[in-house]
Amino acid sequence: MESPVLWPYRSPPAHEAVSAIIRRRSTNAADVREIALDGFDLSLAKRVLDLGCGFGFMAEAVAPRVAPEAEIVGVDVWQANQPPFLERVAAHGRRASFNCMNVGWELPWPDGTFDLVICSYSLYFFAEVLPEIPRVLTPNGTFLALTHSRRDFPALALIVGLSAPGGEWLSIISRFSAENGGSRLGRWFGQVERVNYPNTLVFGRDEIDDLLAFLHFKLPLLLPGWQPSDELPPGVCERARKLLSMRGKLVIEKNDAVFRCRKPRTQFE
Ligand SMILES: C[S@@+](CC[C@H](N)C(=O)[O-])C[C@H]1O[C@@H](n2cnc3c(N)ncnc32)[C@H](O)[C@@H]1O
Q1: For residue 15, what are the domain limits?
Q2: Which terminus of the chain has a smaller tally of CB atoms within 10 A, N or C?
C-alpha cells in the first residue's frame, strides 16, 4: 500500500483542482512552467522521461518544445494518472507512454536512454533515485527539476495549527529543496543552472472556499494518518476562518526553484 502522503495524488481531478487554485491565488503572474522552460532548448530531445508525472502538468508544457518525433514516458505510482497524462501530451501531437511504477533506488532503463529527464515537484518523494538520473541520460542529455522551499512551511503550519517541527511535509521537502537542490545536483551534473520563481499565495476574505480546498489537499502531507476522504478537521476550518477574518487575508509563501542541469556524471566519474 502506498504511503498516505501520496494519497492526494491518486485523484487527478482533485490534483488538477488544487493546481488551478494555486494558479488563481499566485501573486506571480508568470506560469512557473514558462519560467522553467524559458530559453531552454529542447528541440533535439527525442526520448523524454517524466518521473512523478502526475496528470501531466509539466509534460503539457514540455511537449510542444521537444522534437516532433519525440516520445514522453510518464511514470507515476498512481495508475489513474495515465489517461490525463496521455491526453495532455497527445494534445500537442507528441507520442506518450505511461509506466505505473513506484520510483525507488533504481530505474529500469539502460544507460543513455533519455535526452531529457524531468522531475517536477516530485524528486523529494524519491530523492534516492538521483544517481540513476545521469546514468539513464545520454552524454548531452539534460535534467529539469522543480522544487519547493523549506521556508514556505511555517505559514502553512500556522494555519493548520501544527507546532513546528511537526508535519511530514517538511522532512519530505528537505530531501530535495530550493535550499539544498543545487548542492545535491552538483555531485551528478557538471553544470547546474538555477532559476528562482518567487511567489506567494494570497487568500482574501471571500476566498475561504479556495483556502479550505487547498488545505484539504495538503493535509495528508501535514497530518500523518489523515485521509483525503475525511472532512477537514473542525479545528483546522475554524482556525483558518478565524485567521482570515482577523487578518483580512492569508499569505502563504510559495517560492519555488528550478534547476536545469547539463553534463551528466556517472557514479564512476
Ligand atoms: C506534487 S506531484 C507533481 C506532479 C507533476 N509532476 C506536476 O508537476 O504537477 C508528485 C507526483 O509524484 C508522484 N510520486 C510520488 N512518489 C512517487 C514514487 N515513489 N514513484 C512514482 N511516483 C511518485 C505522485 O503520485 C504525484 O503524482
Answers
A1: 4-264
A2: N
